[in-house]
Design goal:
Layout (H helix, E strand, L loop, with lengths): L1 H6 L4 E4 L6 E4 L9 H7 L6 H4 L11 H45 L5 H23 L1 H20 L19 H14 L7 H54 L9 H7 L1 H19 L2 H23 L4 H26 L6
Antiparallel strand pairs: 1-2
Helix pairs in contact: 4-5, 4-6, 4-10, 6-12, 8-10, 8-11, 11-12
Length: about 350
């Protein structure tokens, strides 16, 4: 055991059996506190309205665990729209600066205000990008969201006679201390606070599966029209850019002394429309619409199937197997999102 700990460079406190002298090894690797967990603990508590659900069965988990779960979930819900709105604003300001420059070139405007307008747009975009960078909005959002997903899976399985290793198998350095603590706590309290199979099944169906189903369907209903609008905007912008550029190429020799209408048709659109099309695609990426829609559909199918199986489960063994399978699938989606989103921040 000591040789293995030394090979893994784990901190060791050694006590000599004969002399009772003590020694230490590798204590430079000993972390007294987990910075990530300290940051999560420092988050503000969820509001009273979000902290209680009237009519819901109380969770068998200790109150500090449920309070912690609600506040990280509340932080993640607040962080997602804030980060996406700021990122979208950066894209739109860059787009506006490009359109102003294109209009000045296409129409031959010599206004003093045009360079200043472009400068204000670019400075605004730079300022928002620095806010995103310095405040760590992206990092806080991603960290809170994954912490909330881990907590949801732990609470969903809380009450099973055996502590299924749903979250104990996760090997994330930033969350290892929390997952281990939750798993040990569930093991210690599994027999101390037993729950009947009927009560667990009802709570699992009402507070986990139905809630997740409503979440998936609600967000899918929002994402589908949003993706259609952005795709439509991309195709319209692209087709118009192709048509205007083709017309400009065919009449290139006749545009030396063109009218305002010709400049509006042949000069401004070929410059501005490709940028507008690129902005539409950027919005699809910022809101992660394609991946989210695919995952919402897969998760909805999984939850509908699990709901039927749990509703008719009559033994703890079958119930534990279904709950563990469902939570592993939900956690896998969260880990996939974390892996893709962690490195998507604009630098």
């Amino acid at each position: 055991m000591v040789a293995y700990a030394r090979e893994m460079r784990k901190p060791l406190a050694l006590i000599d059996a004969a002399t009772l002298t003590t020694g230490q090894e590798n204590f430079e690797h000993f972390a007294k506190r987990n910075r990530n967990l300290d940051n999560l603990n420092s988050l503000p508590d969820a509001p009273a309205a979000a902290d209680s659900e009237p009519g819901a069965d109380p969770s068998p988990a200790p109150r500090p665990v449920t309070v912690f779960q609600r506040k990280v979930d509340y932080a993640a819900v607040r962080g997602a729209p804030q980060y996406r709105r700021l990122t979208s604003a950066v894209i739109l300001l860059h787009l506006l600066a490009t359109l102003i420059a294109a209009a000045g070139l296409a129409f031959g405007w010599q206004l003093v205000s045009i360079p200043w307008l472009k400068l204000f747009c670019l400075l605004g975009a730079l300022g928002l990008a620095l806010v995103l960078r310095q405040t760590g909005a992206h990092h806080h959002w991603v960290r809170s969201r994954l912490a909330a997903e881990i907590g949801s899976s732990a609470l969903a399985a809380w009450g099973l006679p055996r502590a299924a290793p749903v979250i104990a198998d996760l090997d994330f350095a930033d969350f290892r201390q929390r997952t281990r603590s939750l798993h040990i706590l569930r093991q210690r309290l599994a027999a101390a606070a037993p729950v009947s199979i009927a009560a667990f099944r009802q709570r699992c169906l009402a507070q986990r599966l139905e809630d997740q189903l409503a979440y998936c369907r609600r967000h899918l209903a929002r994402a589908e029209p949003q993706l259609r609008r952005l795709r439509l905007g991309f195709w319209i912008s692209t087709v118009l850019a192709v048509l205007c550029t083709s017309a400009c190429a065919l009449r290139l020799g006749e545009l030396a002394h063109g009218t305002v209408a010709e400049e509006l048709l042949y000069y401004f659109p070929p410059i501005s429309l490709p940028v507008i099309a690129a902005a539409f695609l950027s919005m699809v990426s910022v809101y992660d619409l394609q991946r989210r829609m695919a995952r919402y559909r897969e998760t909805e199918h999984l939850l509908v199937s699990s709901r039927s199986q749990i509703a008719f489960s009559q033994t703890w063994t079958s119930l534990e197997r279904i709950v563990e399978k469902t939570e592993r699938a939900l956690l896998q989606e969260g880990l996939e999102w974390h892996a893709m989103t962690s490195f998507s921040e604009s630098h």
